[in-house]
Structures
1.
Amino acid sequence: MLNASVALSQIGEGEAGEGPSPYVDCGIGGALFPTTSWAAVTSNVIWDAGTTAVTSATMSPETCNGKSVAMAEYVKGSYASLEMDIISGRGAYLNGLSQVSGCGAEPSEAFVTAVRNSVKNAVSSESAVVEQDKQAMLFNAAYNASLSCTS
């Protein structure tokens, strides 16, 4: 029994309470509302009962800041213009999204296609999508598309 407790104590490197706050710093809420805690918590709970936030905090705490936050701020601050660029398949705001996603200033065709298809499929499957949900869908689409970027 002593060996098991020693082994378990060596699993985590940090102290209890270290790391990101799941509902505030992680998930779609933490990404879309990095400076407004109540909005981050509300968004995470509404989006998927906080499952994504807790999972990202537990499994990959490094995703709770950095690129994700920059992407979320960009999507939130320029959603209407991004929507127009995504419809046309090109434009300065789509280039900016590619840049903050870590995919370079000129988005690849694969990035644009992935974002367009994900957003189109998500929005067409919902009868009444509110602006915040559209922003979350776009963020998720861009984040997933950025995972395959080579630049």
2.
Amino acid sequence: MNGGTEEVGVEGEGRAGVGGAARDGEMETGTEAAAAAVSLETLRKRMADFARERDWEQFHSPRNLLLALVGEVGELSETFQWKGEVPKGLPGWDEAEKEHLGEELADVLLYLVRLSDMCGVDLGKAALRKMEINARKYPVDQCKGSSKKHTHYGSTNSDSTNDNVNTSNKEA
């Protein structure tokens, strides 16, 4: 514990994380079948239950969750470090590397879902809204095949400049 703040983590014991793969006493059978039907709401509820059962809600402030998310993004980045450009499908990666990548991606997702829950943001709705905004910023007929920023295109929709009033010009 540093300065009265418990370290927040996903996978480690003794860390006030956001969720685990299985609840106490549950087997991890049927994981693939369960994953096919998983929703953001299911993850949100499971992680809320996980934290509540362990009395970890006290550590899950937006700030703590954001910092933990940033740490997990760093760990995700390490899986690609020194590999050069990695083609789609990860040819040349062994199963252990792919499994580790999946675990790091899951850590990022779990923290993002938990952070959105603690901030009262419906992540699914926000993501769909953001996709609509991006569709207006990047009209297919103007940007297909180009990686240029939306400010390069002469968007005819004046609403697109007001869609992200409190955000930077960076895109997701």
